[in-house]
Design brief:
There is one protein chain. This protein has 16 helices and two strands. By secondary structure, it is mainly alpha-helical. A two-stranded antiparallel sheet has the order 1-2. Strand 1 and strand 2 form a beta hairpin. It is globular. It starts with 12 loop residues before the first helix and ends in a 26-residue tail after the last helix. One of its GO terms (molecular function) is metal ion binding. It holds the Pfam family polyprenyl_synt. This is Geranylgeranyl diphosphate synthase 1.
Length: about 325
C-alpha cells in the first residue's frame, strides 16, 4: 500500500500499447498524408533544422490521427478510410481516452525542442480546433443553418487549425523570416470545401465512407448551406438533415435537389476562386525565393473538375426535375 502512495511507477510498454490501441489502429490505415507533404513543401522556404522538422511532422501527424478518432465518435461515423471506425472496434470510451492521451503525448514531444513559443502555438491552435468543432456540432445538433461567413470561420478554426499549426511551428523554429499563414489559411478552406463537395458528389467517397455520409451525419456542409439559403422557404434539405437518413434514394434525391439549386456549381466556382487566390499568394511568397513546386502541386491536385463523377446529378432522383433552379 505504501508503494501506491509514491510517485507512479515507470509506465510499461504493455500498458502503453493498450492505451494506444485505437490510435494505432487508425494510424495503421493511413490516408493521403497531405499534411506531411505540405510540411516538406513549405520547408523549401523555411529550412527548419532536421531534428525540429522531424518532431513537428510527428506532432502534426499525431494530432491529425487523434482528432479523426474523436471526429468519428462525434459524427457517429461507420467507415474511415474504407475500414470500420475505431470506436466500433475498441468502444467509444477507450477511443476517446486514446485520442486525448495522444494530444498530451504530442505536447510532450514539442517540449523536447525547448522553445516556449511552440507551446503557445500548440495551445492556441488546439483551442481553435475545438472552437471550430464545437460550432459544427452545435449547428448539426440544433438544426441551425449557419451563414457562409460563419461556416468559413468554423473551417478556418477546425480544418485550417492543423495546417496553420504545422506552418507556425515551422516558422518558430526557422531562421527565415516570412509569413506563410495567409496561404495556409487559404489551403485549409480549399481542403475542407473540396471535401464537402466530394462527400456529396464523388463515387470514390462512397467506397471509403459511404454514400453522402455528411447527410447521414446531418452536417451543414458548404453545398448544403448554399442549397438551403438559396430556397429558404423550401424545407426539403433541412428535413433530410433532420432525419440523418441512411436511405440511398433519399440521399440521391438530396443530391439532385442541390444540383437544381446550383449548389454544386456554386461550390465549384468558390473552389476555383480560392485556388486562383492560392496561386497569387504563392507567387508573392516565391518572389525572390526558391520555387515551391511541392506546394504548387498540392494546389493543383485540389483543383475540381466539372462534374466530379461525370454524371448529371439533376437526373439522379425522381421528381428532382420539378425543383426550381437556383443561382
Amino acid at each position: 500500500m505504501t508503494d501506491a502512495l509514491k510517485q507512479p511507477r515507470a509506465w510499461s510498454q504493455e500498458k502503453e500499447k493498450i492505451l494506444l490501441g485505437p490510435y494505432d489502429y487508425m494510424y495503421g490505415h493511413p490516408g493521403k498524408d497531405i499534411r506531411s507533404q505540405m510540411i516538406a513543401s513549405f520547408n523549401v522556404w523555411l529550412k527548419v533544422p532536421d531534428e525540429s522538422l522531424s518532431v513537428i511532422t510527428k506532432v502534426v501527424g499525431m494530432l491529425h490521427t487523434a482528432s479523426l478518432l474523436v471526429d468519428d465518435v462525434e459524427d457517429n461515423s461507420e467507415l474511415r478510410r474504407g475500414v470500420p471506425v475505431a470506436h466500433n472496434i475498441f468502444g467509444t470510451a477507450q477511443t476517446i481516452n486514446s485520442a486525448n492521451y495522444v494530444y498530451f503525448c504530442a505536447l510532450q514531444e514539442l517540449l523536447k525542442l525547448q522553445n516556449p513559443s511552440l507551446i503557445e502555438i500548440y495551445t492556441e491552435e488546439l483551442l481553435n480546433l475545438h472552437r471550430g468543432q464545437g460550432m459544427d456540432l452545435f449547428w448539426r445538433d440544433t438544426l441551425t443553418c449557419p451563414n457562409e461567413d460563419d461556416y468559413l470561420e468554423m473551417v478556418g478554426n477546425k480544418t485550417g487549425g492543423l495546417f496553420r499549426l504545422a506552418v507556425k511551428l515551422m516558422q518558430a523554429e526557422s531562421q527565415t523570416q516570412m509569413d506563410c499563414v495567409p496561404l495556409v489559411n487559404n489551403l485549409g478552406l480549399i481542403f475542407q470545401i473540396l471535401d464537402d463537395y466530394k462527400n456529396l458528389s464523388d463515387t470514390t467517397y462512397t467506397a471509403n465512407k459511404g454514400l453522402c455520409e455528411d447527410l447521414t451525419e446531418g452536417k451543414f456542409s458548404f453545398p448544403v448551406i448554399h442549397s438551403i439559403r438559396t430556397e429558404p422557404d423550401n424545407l426539403v434539405m433541412l428535413n433530410i438533415l433532420k432525419q440523418k437518413t441512411r436511405d440511398e434514394e433519399v440521399k440521391r434525391y438530396a443530391m439532385a435537389y442541390m444540383e437544381r439549386t446550383g449548389s454544386f456549381r456554386y461550390t465549384r466556382n468558390i473552389l476555383r476562386e480560392l485556388t486562383e487566390k492560392a496561386f497569387v499568394l504563392l507567387d508573392e511568397l516565391e518572389n525572390g525565393r526558391e520555387k515551391a513546386d511541392g506546394i504548387r502541386k498540392i494546389v493543383e491536385k485540389m483543383s475540381v473538375e466539372e462534374p466530379v463523377n461525370g454524371t448529371d446529378l439533376s437526373s439522379a432522383a425522381p421528381g428532382a426535375e420539378s425543383l426550381s433552379p437556383g443561382s
